[in-house]
Amino acid sequence: MSIDKQQREGAEVLLMGNEAIARGALEAGVQVAAGYPGTPSSEIIETLSRFAEPGKLYVEWSANEKVAMEVAAAASFSGLRSMCVMKQNGVNVASDFLLHLTGSGTRGGMLLVTCDDPGALSSVNEGESRHFARLMEIPLLEPADFQEAKEMMPWAFTLSEEIRNIVMVRSVTRMSHASGNVVLGALPQPGGKGEFLCDGKISDPERGPVISAPVVEKHRLQQEKIRKAAAIFETSPFNAYTGPERPELLIITSSACRLYSDEAVSLLGAEGRVGILKLGTTWPIPPAYVKKHLTTTEKVLIVEEVLPFLEEQVKILAAEQAREIGIKTFYGKNDGTLPMTGELNPDLVAAAIGRILGIAPATFPAVYNEKLRSLAGVVPQREQTFCPGCPHRATYWSIREALQRDGRNGFVCGDIGCYAMAVLFQAAGFHTAKTLHAMGSGIGLASGFGKLGSFGMDQPVLAVCGDSTFYHAAIPALINAVHQNANVIFIVLDNSGTAMTGFQSHPGLAVNAMGEAVPMVDIAAICGSMGVKVVSGDPFALRQTRETLNRLMEERGGVKVLILKQSCALSPEKKGKKQYLVRVDEHLCRGDACGCNRLCTRIFRCPGLLWDREKGKARIDEVICAGCGVCAGICPAEAIRCEEAQVP
Amino acid sequence: MTKQLLVKDPYNIIITGVGGQGNVLASRVFSGMLVRTGYRVTIGETFGMSQRGGSVMSHIRVSAAKVWSPQIPKGRADLIVAIEPVEALRVLADYGNPAVKVLVNMRPIYPVGVITGEAEYPAPEKIREAVRSLSALSFFLDATDEAVKLGNPILGNIVMIGAVAGLGVLPVDQGVFETVIREGMPASRVEANLRAFAIGMAVVTK
């Protein structure tokens, strides 16, 4: 069902797009891979780590994406094939190094694999990493199915070695997290020795120091490399046309949008009228190849996610070649034929083609449509929330209680991780968390808010941050807050892993992605070394946490750190194991008459707590309840009872 | 590896449920069976944040010929497998059509809005009625209850896979299920999975 070491060349298996990318890297003989977890990219490094072996393949979860790229670049400079992997906004983090790396060039083949998230299915941005390829002047490849995701990797490594620069491979959620058949290729013998040759002159690309200076000369060389890539792209096996010789409408597309385009044409039965030009090499587009196809038609629809990246390139090419290819009518994002935001799907593409060609979509009998409409209002919304047993629910509960008692309209600056749900779904965080931006921005913003006292601001400023996020980007902002004496309570939500993306290792843990025992970098010690007050606690101890928070709010002035440690409910050591058997004592539950206004099921909102309408009392759903016992601490009637669960 | 022609190509299945019910595992086990039988399968999945108590959907496209889009077009599901009852209705609203077949596990997982009293959860009979009126064929199972009897509620999704096999619309049987399960799971869990599969199969074939 997924890739493992037993699978042999020629086997046809079901692989997730990310697994196919990892398999392709393995077949290319990748020797060093580094990344930072982020949906939808995480399974690539995870898969590679299962194949890691000293001297053969080194894999690491780096502290952040910029470090991951630097780690991979060091391997490239030493003549090894390497890659760094991240989600779209990770490229922003790495981009400062990337700008310089593209100037210095690389030696061993080096890839930047980025997985974008059109529609922000698991992101708080819809960033388009493709623009970095243009901005940084490096080649960009986009696979359009699962087999291709694998095949593209060895090809990309070869390209990188040919032009001696980093090559970007971009996937999207619907490729990375979709699965399909993949025929496996051979795994090569372990690759060569790593050595950084650096005794040559600055102008020597083989043995000189690796830097981006002299800048203008290196920049000129870089542009030569991109022209060379464009020439190679003219005959790339990843560009293909299907359809009639002279289509009425030419679709130019890439990535998952190619599959949507195929399906849309098939839905409309328009195979005889529409041609599809699928590009796997999307920056720079191969000019002669695209020009050849532009000459076959007058109408061109560009189908892509998210911004009009291909569209702009194709239009520039068409303008440059207008004398030869004639005037075209373009459809795409700029004219509103397709939406400029959100992800696409076969229906949106079919509707666009239908409008251009005047094809009406098939419809159901009116009576069926009528029945479908009757469903409206019947199906309740399913709001996302913290899992049963999640330490974050307990933490935000204590924050809510503490802020209410304090009474000065305090607020929490949120950050990236599951705990961001407190901002996205205000009820989940009990309406306490009010900002959410990039990783580490919670404490950065808090550092700013915490300096507004002189403007009359008297609201307590709290920032939260998970353990992995702490190492990723919170430390410089925390140093800033300490140095500027900002009035901030910084709460580290330490759940012992990169929980949201699947428990990848981070610098606070004792084992790395290679499975090696490594030094743990202690959060409390880092904070303590900055000379600020550090308090540790257990988020499940509600009363204690609330009292600590209120005490810290009263002690004004400077940064105070509260580290709340409790493993994620889904962590391997906790999942499926209940600490307590929880039940509601019906005699003690006062129901609607209590006066608490159903604190348990209306405010606390753990999915494991139900409201029995017939009895008018709370009850526990044993299938859902994780047995954390936290709800026992919120019931004013003490009707929620916990009993130590027997360890099976 | 005898590959029969499908009743429809691509055959479109949606497995739906709530994060944590084992939706992704169910879609992978089921698709693994079809790939082993020689078909091209595309699964479209959304996970990440949707795991945290939200609705989840796996789109499975089965074809003898080619790779299809990881998103099924609206109104084009051939079979909906709902591990949670209102999720069946949610998916029908978008992907239903007069020919669709629907299998529903009747164990509800109440949305937080229902628990708080802000929203209503439709009565089981109302759900059955709506599913029947919007589909060509439907079965309602107590898959979670059966799974709890087997010792683990998560086996509910395997009961549902057994029911799909029992429908006979796709060339999958107990034999190929057993092969896939034996490969993908620890030996200690194989027996319970096989029993769960058989229970589901019996519901639709009796």
Report on the structure:
The complex is a heterodimer of chains A (648) and B (206). Chain A folds into four domains: 12-233, Rossmann fold (3-Layer(aba) Sandwich), CATH 3.40.50.970; 240-357, Rossmann fold (3-Layer(aba) Sandwich); 391-565, Thiamin diphosphate (ThDP)-binding fold, Pyr/PP domains (Rossmann fold); 580-644, 2-Layer Sandwich (Alpha-Beta Plaits). In chain A, strand 19, helix 20 and strand 20 (559-565) form a beta-alpha-beta unit. Chain A has 648 residues and is an alpha/beta fold. Chain A starts with 11 loop residues before the first strand and ends with a strand. Chain B has one domain (11-205): 3-Layer(aba) Sandwich (Pyruvate-ferredoxin Oxidoreductase, domain 3), CATH 3.40.920. Chain B has helices at 23-36, 85-95, 112-116, 124-134, 143-149, 156-167, 174-184, 187-205, and strands spanning 11-18, 40-45, 55-63, 79-82, 101-105, 137-141. Chain B is globular. The chains are: A alpha/beta (648), B alpha/beta (206). Chains A and B meet through strand 1, helix 7, strand 8, helix 9 and helix 13 of A and helix 1, strand 2, helix 2, helix 3 and helix 4 of B.
Q: Would you give the CATH topology of chain B? A: Pyruvate-ferredoxin Oxidoreductase, domain 3
Structural class of chain B: alpha/beta
Number of strands of chain B: 6
Report the end-to-end length of chain B measured between terminal Cα atoms.
Answer: 28 Å
